[in-house]
Write a structure and sequence with these properties.
The complex is a heterodimer. By secondary structure, chain A is an alpha/beta fold. In chain A, the strands form two sheets. In chain A, strands 6-7-8-4-9-10 form a six-stranded mixed beta sheet, with helices on both faces. Mean pLDDT of chain A is 87; it is low at 1-12. Helices cover 30% and strands 26% of the residues of chain A. The longest helix of chain A is centred in the last third of the chain and has 18 residues, at 166-183. Chain A starts with a strand and ends in a 12-residue tail after the last helix. Chain A has one domain (2-242): P-loop containing nucleotide triphosphate hydrolases (Rossmann fold). Chain B is globular and about 75 Å long. By secondary structure, chain B is mainly α. Chain B has a domain at 86-277: MetI-like (MetI-like fold, Orthogonal Bundle), CATH 1.10.3720.10. Helix content of chain B is 75%, strand content 0%. Mean pLDDT of chain B is 86; it is low at 1-23. The chains are: A alpha/beta, B mainly alpha.
Chain lengths: 253, 285
C-alpha cells in the first residue's frame, strides 16, 4: 500500500522495491531556503543515514516524510505504514508502558503484539511501569517498540540516541541493527553523529544547502570495526563534507 | 551562620532543594502526619487558657469548651429558634452540593468546547473572562431581584463560585498539553476523538483538578455569603438568628461547620488526585 503526500503534485509508489521517493522537494522559512529541490530514493529494506549541520534541513525532510509538515512543494511518495521515533521518546506520561506501545494500534490483539515488541527490546518486566519512572535508554526502547509494532515499511529515526550517554548509545545501536535485521524496514536515520551513521547505515548522505551534497555507500560488514580502513577514510571525507576544518591531526580522528 | 551555596547553573531553573536534597529530609521523619496537629492543638490550648483566665471575655470570643458544648446542645436538642445543627448542615450541604456539581459540570463542558475548537474559544472564552471580572458577591442584590429570596439565587451564586476557577484551569490545562504529543498522535494515526480521549483530556487533568480545589473554596465562600440573604433554613439562617441574640458561640459553631464542609470536600478532591495522577506521584517519590 502506498500513499503520496504533498501540497502540489502526488505520485503513488508502483514499485515494491522503493520505500520512499522524493522529487524536487523545496521548503522555505521566509527568505531562508531550507530544502532546495531535493530528490531522494530509499530502497525497500535499505538503511540510510542522513547527516548535516544543525539547520541543514535534515529534520525538515524527515518531518515532511512523516506527514508532519505539509507546507512543502515538490512531490514525495512513501510506502505505508510509516513509523517515527523522535529525539525525545515522546511517551504519553499518563499511559503505562504497554498502553503507550498499543496507542493507536489497530488489528487483532494489540496487547499480545505489544508484549512481543517489548520482549524484543527487553522491557517485558517494565510493561506496567509509568513512563516517568523509566531511564532515558528504557524510554527510547519503548519508543522503538511503539514504532516496531506498526510493522513499518519505512522507519524514520530523528536523532533518537543524541540525548543518551555513550554506553547506552552503543547498546541502542546494537538493538536497532538487530531489529532492522529481523523486520527489514527501510530506515532513514537523521543524525549529526558521523560515527553513528558509519556504524549503522548502508548509505550515508550529507545534507548541505538544502540538497544532498554527498552520498556514500558503506559496504563494510556489520558489526563494524570502527577502525576499518574504509570507514576511517570515509569518516574523514564526511567530516570534510560537513565543513569540519582538517589539519595535520587528521589521522587522530 | 549557615550559608547555602548553590552552583551558579542551578540557581536559574532548578529549585534549590532539588540540588541539595533538603526537601527530602522531612519524608524520613516518622509520623509527620500527626505532628502537624501539634501546632493546632497548641493554639486551641492557649485559647482555652486565655478564656478560662478571663483574658478573652466570653461575650467576644467563646472558649473552645463552650463551642463544643454549644455544638453538642444544638445537635441533641431541637430548639424552636434554631432547629437542630444537623438539619441546618444538611440544608447548606445540599445547596452547596447542587451548586458545586452544576457549576463544575458547566465549566468542564465550556472548557472542553473552547479548549478544543477555535469557534468554541471565540464563542465562550471572551464572555466568560469578562463575566469572571464581575465581583461575584456584588451580584447578590441583582439575583434577589431576578430570582426572589428562595433557594434558587443561593444555589446560583454557588454555581458561579464553582464555575470560574474550574473553567479557567481546565481550559488552560487543555491548551497546555504538549504539542509534541499532538504530533505523536498524528504519526500514530490517532483519530481526533482518540487524540482527545487519550492525550488531551488526561493531559489537562492535573490543571483541572487544581481548578476543582479552587472551585471548592470559591463555591463555599459563595455559599456563606449567599446564605446570609433572607435564609429561613441552613447554617446561614442559624448565623443570622444568632446574630440577633448576640450568641457568638452559635455563630462560631456554624463557622466551624463551614470549615468542616470545606475540609471534607478538599480531602475528597485530594483523594481523587492521588488516584488519577498516580503517574505523577510515583515520579515524585
Amino acid at each position: 500500500m502506498s500513499r503520496a503526500r504533498t501540497t502540489t503534485t502526488a505520485t503513488a509508489i508502483a514499485n515494491d522495491q522503493v520505500a520512499a521517493s522524493v522529487r524536487d522537494l523545496s521548503k522555505r522559512f521566509g527568505n531562508r531556503i531550507v530544502l532546495d529541490e531535493l530528490s531522494l530514493d530509499i530502497k525497500a529494506g535499505e538503511f540510510v543515514a542522513m547527516i548535516g549541520r544543525s539547520g541543514s534541513g535534515k529534520s525538515t525532510l524527515l518531518r515532511a516524510l512523516a506527514g508532519l509538515d505539509r507546507d512543502v512543494s515538490g512531490s514525495m511518495a512513501v510506502a505505508e505504514p510509516v513509523a517515527v521515533a523522535f529525539q525525545e521518546p515522546r511517551l504519553v506520561p499518563w499511559k503505562r508502558v504497554i498502553d503507550n506501545v498499543t496507542l493507536g494500534l489497530r488489528g487483532a490483539d494489540p496487547d499480545r503484539v505489544a508484549a512481543e515488541a517489548l520482549a524484543e527490546v527487553e522491557l517485558t518486566e517494565r510493561r506496567s511501569a509509568w513512563p516517568l519512572t523509566l531511564s532515558g535508554g528504557e524510554a527510547q526502547r519503548v519508543s522503538l517498540a511503539r514504532a516496531l509494532v506498526r510493522s513499518p515499511s519505512l522507519l524514520l529515526l530523528d536523532e533518537p540516541f543524541s540525548a543518551l550517554d555513550a554506553l547506552t548509545t552503543i547498546s541502542m545501536h546494537r538493538l536497532v541493527l538487530r531489529l532492522w535485521e529481523t523486520h527489514r524496514p527501510a530506515v532513514l536515520l537523521v543524525t549529526h553523529d558521523v560515527d553513528e551513521a558509519l556504524a549503522l547505515a548502508d548509505r550515508v548522505l550529507v545534507l548541505g544547502d538544502g540538497r544532498i551534497a554527498y552520498s556514500a555507500t558503506v559496504d563494510a560488514p556489520r558489526p563494524r570495526d570502527r577502525n576499518h580502513p574504509d570507514l576511517t577514510a570515509l569518516r574523514l571525507r564526511l567530516l570534510r563534507e560537513l565543513g569540519v576544518p582538517m589539519g595535520e591531526t587528521d589521522e587522530l580522528i | 551562620m549557615l550559608v547555602q551555596v548553590v552552583p551558579r547553573s542551578a540557581t536559574r531553573d532548578a529549585p534549590v532543594w532539588a540540588e541539595t536534597g533538603g526537601g527530602r529530609v522531612w519524608q524520613f521523619l516518622p509520623g509527620r502526619g500527626w505532628l502537624r496537629l501539634i501546632s493546632l492543638l497548641a493554639v486551641v490550648g492557649v485559647w482555652q487558657l486565655l478564656s478560662a483566665t478571663g483574658v478573652l471575655p466570653a461575650t467576644r470570643l467563646a472558649s473552645p469548651v463552650t463551642i463544643a458544648h454549644t455544638a453538642y446542645t444544638l445537635v441533641t436538642t431541637n430548639s424552636p429558634t434554631y432547629g437542630t445543627l444537623q438539619a441546618s448542615l444538611l440544608v447548606s450541604a445540599e445547596r452547596w452540593g447542587i451548586g458545586l456539581c452544576v457549576g463544575v459540570t458547566i465549566a468542564v463542558l465550556l472548557a472542553v468546547a473552547s479548549g478544543l475548537s477555535r469557534i468554541g474559544e471565540y464563542a465562550f472564552d471572551p464572555v466568560l473572562n469578562a463575566a469572571r471580572s464581575i465581583p461575584l458577591l456584588g451580584l447578590l442584590p441583582l439575583f434577589i431581584v431576578w430570582f426572589g429570596i428562595g433557594d434558587l439565587p443561593k444555589i446560583l451564586i454557588v454555581v458561579l463560585g464553582a464555575l470560574f476557577p474550574m473553567y479557567v484551569n481546565t481550559f488552560a490545562g487543555i491548551r497546555g498539553v504538549d504539542p509534541k504529543l499532538g504530533e505523536l498522535g498524528r504519526v500514530l494515526g490517532l483519530s481526533r476523538w482518540e487524540l482527545v480521549r487519550h492525550v488531551v483530556l488526561p493531559g489537562s487533568l492535573p490543571s483541572a483538578l487544581t481548578g476543582l480545589r479552587l472551585s471548592v473554596v470559591g463555591s463555599l465562600l459563595a455559599l456563606v455569603v449567599g446564605e446570609q440573604i433572607n435564609a429561613n433554613a441552613g447554617l446561614g439562617f442559624m448565623i443570622n438568628t444568632a446574630e440577633q441574640f448576640l450568641a457568638n458561640n452559635i455563630i462560631m459553631v456554624c463557622l466551624f461547620m463551614y470549615a468542616v464542609l470545606g475540609l471534607l470536600a478538599d480531602g475528597l478532591v485530594r483523594l481523587v488526585e492521588r488516584r488519577a495522577l498516580a503517574w505523577r506521584r510515583e515520579f515524585a517519590q
